[in-house]
Amino acid sequence: ERVLELARRLSRGEALGTQEDEEEEEGEMCQRHREPLELFCKEDGALLCAICRESRAHRAHAVLPLPEAARDFEEQIQAGLQTLKDERDKLLELREAEMRRIW
């Protein structure tokens, strides 16, 4: 996301190295509390700061540290990717068999 945002700014001729850029480098911040977003709420699929975590809205929810949530999602994506690769291989084999049958 950061690379795309920098590319957009460059294409619009905007200057880089502003205070906003420095804040983005430190990590995303909670809009409400100006605290770093370090947690992930599994029920809501939302990034949370420590203060939001203790709010009524998320207190009873399962919350993970951001790196752990990222690993979980990466594992899910890799598993889905492997499934798609396996299905693609099967389809290619069927296509090849059908092409041989037609010839």
UniProtKB/TrEMBL annotation:
It comes from the Eukaryota. It holds the Pfam family zf-B_box. The keyword Membrane does not apply. The keyword rRNA processing does not apply. SMART domains: BBOX. One of its GO terms (molecular function) is zinc ion binding. Residues 25-66 form the B box-type domain. Keywords: Metal-binding, Zinc, Zinc-finger. This is TRI27 protein. The gene is Trim27.
